[in-house]
Amino acid sequence: MKKTAGIHHITAIVGHPQENVDFYAGVLGLRLVKKTVNFDDPGTYHLYFGDGGGKPGTIITFFPWANAYQGKIGAGQVGVTSYVVPTGALSFWEERLGKFNITFTKEARFGETYLLFEDPHGLQLELVEREQGELNHFEFGGITPAVAIKGFGGATLLSARPDQTAKTLEEVMGLEKVGEEGDLIRFRSSSDIGNIIDVKATPLGRGQMGVGTVHHIAWRAEDDQDHVEWQEHVRNHGFGVTEVKDRNYFNALYFREHGEILFEIATDPPGFAHDETPETMGENLMLPEQYETRREQLVESLIPIEVRPLD
């Protein structure tokens, strides 16, 4: 059986790009590792935030549209994105969220304590302490490695058919069912981050794509050969799967599982430093080759953004 190591990235739709940058870099201390455009709609940004190295399992990506309509979180989406922080760091994050007037609540499940809050555009986020995962040595805005977000803890999936989503996680993606609590079924993959997936067992009303919703969740493939094997594997389980798409920083293929959540499988290589140096990642607008001739026009149309400390 094929088994994904875990989450590669999560992609969401948000509003004004500067508000997006201020929250994920300025408040949460993540690194803007790539500033590019939506390859299918180059009139808008595609922004990638992660740890200092932009490793798989740490990357959240955004399509920001200022003044776009608000979406509705519901079935067929990732409902909550979890971030993992070092053991003992939650008190720091309680103080930091309070400092920026971000309302949060605390919740206990599966023996862990979570801080739940929203980003400025309505995305549901949470922080959880865990020993697993390397420290993030990127420092910004007074956030040190001792408390910095290490990457994804996982995600909560909202499915139109939870039994089918659970079946896909186990039989197609190779995750292991490890428990049930309340209305949640928990699965785990082999990675030390991005490895815990909760599926809400009760179907919700259908979600509506828009600002404040997750567009898709991407799973890890080791390399291009593994990726091709995943394509065949998914097809052999009866899913319609796309051709391989070159996303410059990884190759991607997509399929919609039977609970209506859009799954992507993405390669770990080549990563985000192949067109910038590791030191300068995220500083410049990077365009795929097909859009370089339109650089001046695209720069004029995009809202200027700046990574800035908010303290």
UniProtKB/TrEMBL annotation:
Matching entries from Gene3D superfamilies are given as: 2,3-Dihydroxybiphenyl 1,2-Dioxygenase, domain 1 (3.10.180.10)
Which controlled-vocabulary keywords does the entry list?
A: Dioxygenase, Oxidoreductase
Write one Gene Ontology MF term.
Answer: dioxygenase activity
Cite the InterPro entries for this sequence.
Answer: Extradiol_RC_dioxygenase (IPR052537), Glyas_Bleomycin-R_OHBP_Dase (IPR029068), Glyas_Fos-R_dOase_dom (IPR004360), VOC_core (IPR037523)
CDD domains given in the database record: PcpA_C_like, PcpA_N_like
Residues annotated as coiled-coil are none
Top-rank taxon: Bacteria
Ranges where the VOC domain occurs: 6-130, 151-268
Q: Which Pfam families does the protein's record reference?
A: Glyoxalase
**What name appears for this protein in its UniProt entry?**
Ring-cleaving dioxygenase
